Amino acid sequence: MPKYIFCTGGVVSSVGKGVTAAAIGRILKSRGVKVAIQKLDPYLNVDPGTMSPYQHGEVFVTADGAETDLDLGHYERFTDENLDQTCNVTTGQIYAEVIRKERRGDYLGGTIQVIPHITNEIKRRIALVGAKSDPQVVIVEVGGTVGDIEGQPFFEAIRQMRADIGRDQTLYVHVTFLPYIGATSELKTKPTQHSVRELRGIGIQPQVIIARTDHAVSQEIVDKIALFCDVERRAVIPLETTDNIYDVPLVLEDAGLGDYIVEQLQLETDPPELGEWRDLVRRMRGVSELLRVAIVGKYVELRDAYISVKEALSHAAVAHNRDLEIEWVYSGDLEKDRCWEQLDGVSGIVVPGGFGYRGIEGKILAAQYARNRQVPYLGLCLGMQVMCIEFARSVLGLEDANSTEFDSSCEHPVIDLMPDQQGVVNLGGTMRLGIYPCVLSSSTEAARAYQQPAVDERHRHRFEFNNRYRDMFEQAGARFSGLSPDDRLVEIMELVDHPFMLGSQFHPEFRSRPNRPHPLFLAFIQAAMSYAVSASPQSEPESHSAEVEA
Ligand code: GLN
User: Fold this and answer.
1) How far apart are CA 51 and CA 212, in angstroms?
2) How many angstroms is it from 384 CA to the middle of ligand 1?
């Protein structure tokens, strides 16, 4: 039976509760403790797969094909454990299951209520985590903040768990925020006190308070929080905003959180071994040589939409001793012939995944720019599809080439709905999701990058390269360097006559770890570095319009 750490949030959201939970995972793992992490999301959607990135940021895809909250990306990157579909639970899933059972007659004669039916289902789902991997500690993060109406059943369920499995088997960590009042130059603890009171109203007394803040926290403030919130002084841990999220486990460990958790949960562990992690953070901070790479996307004002891509790029950059600077380019601007100057001086272009027509033509233009100017290009899922459309239009002269996602009646559907997707009517959870094998052709960029004949990568898409065009593409200088084992699906396309122009139908970014960057990102950054060296700083940037073919 695992022990449980419940992470709740108070005051405001978006203060890094997910990173904190992930960091606790890393701290425990550094002591040899086997951990699993789960996120409980109180919203009513079954999963975030059908939500707009404006609502939710990135959808993180697990190996077993669950579309999950982006915090699972933090969990995987910090703990280096692959999570699965049990690790993200939503109100939508809980109610769907309870109602399914009700229709089946499981509760015949009974009235179904939030307590106990909904809370029992929540507890059942919590218990499912790690059923396969048998963790010693399960960290459970409750999304949102205490007091949110949707969150109530989840708070009640985690409250009950203390009585169910024992006081010394559970630990409640509350992550709050200390606002700073500029006029008087002081940090305020009152909202933290209120959120702890709210939590106590539900019956949960937190044992640890992590106080997020943008300013240094005095001992006086710590003492005050301890007194007013009835938490031990050593368990009030200030967590100042850091320039590097991978520093968070170190800050928490150095503040004594690891020892406190071990003591409270009576865990038998090895001494903490965070040396490698410290080196990693030191290396991240030590790199000084700048490398500029553009991400051309639709949600660039919303960095969370591409968080795994951004992390994967920076993992690879650090491994190559480069300080990554990302130029966020809105593809909609490019199609209006605006903001091209943002691409001046970048050494690589990434077009990430996406859905829907808005901004597509700008992404196609970005692929064209990369191909014409021999700028390294990495296309991720939609980014690969865009690269194919651009190649078809400009190189093969198929002017009306498109994806049927954007133009269902185009003359040359070089990207088309996968056969298995024909006739799919429900949108939720019905894409090609999770890991599938990909066989690599030797002597290609992909094979050189991976250094292995076959790989498993995570997918999330409905559309795919149209095999009718394979021969035409190959004859004109495209190479399909990664295919499904049955040869049916194109998984990687690259261009022969280009230093690095590669697109993958899968999402390699989900597998990148700070201490184990993904091979395709490493290869892309390597190519960008070579490009940076070869690009003459003196040469006048040509006007874009002169470059546009077709
Ligand atoms: N919209 C495209 C498809 O469904 C690409 C999806 C993606 O980029 N994840 O195939």
Assistant:
1) 28
2) 9
- Looking at every residue in the chain, the average pLDDT score rounds to 94
Sign of the dihedral defined by the CA atoms of residues 485, 486, 492, 497, in that order? positive
What is this structure's pTM? 0.94
Residue spans in the chain of domains classed CATH 3.40.50.880: 288-549
**Pocket around ligand 1: residues whose beta carbon is below 6 Å from it?**
353-355, 381-382, 405, 460-463
Q: Which of 44, 73, 42 is nearest to 59 (CA)?
A: 73
Chain-centre distance for alpha carbon 155:
25
Site to probe by mutation for ligand 1, drawn from 363, 433, 457, 463 as the one with most ligand atoms within 8 Å of Cβ, is 463
- Residue with the smallest CA separation from ligand 1 atom 3 is 461
- Residue 303: band (very low, low, confident or very high) from pLDDT cuts 50, 70, 90: confident
The correct answer on CATH 3.40.50.300 for the domain covering 3-279 is: yes
- Residues 493-549 pLDDT 10s: 999 999 999 999 999 999 999 999 999 999 999 999 999 999 855 544 554 544 443
| CATH classification code of 288-549 | 3.40.50.880
Active centre residues (catalytic): 381, 507, 509
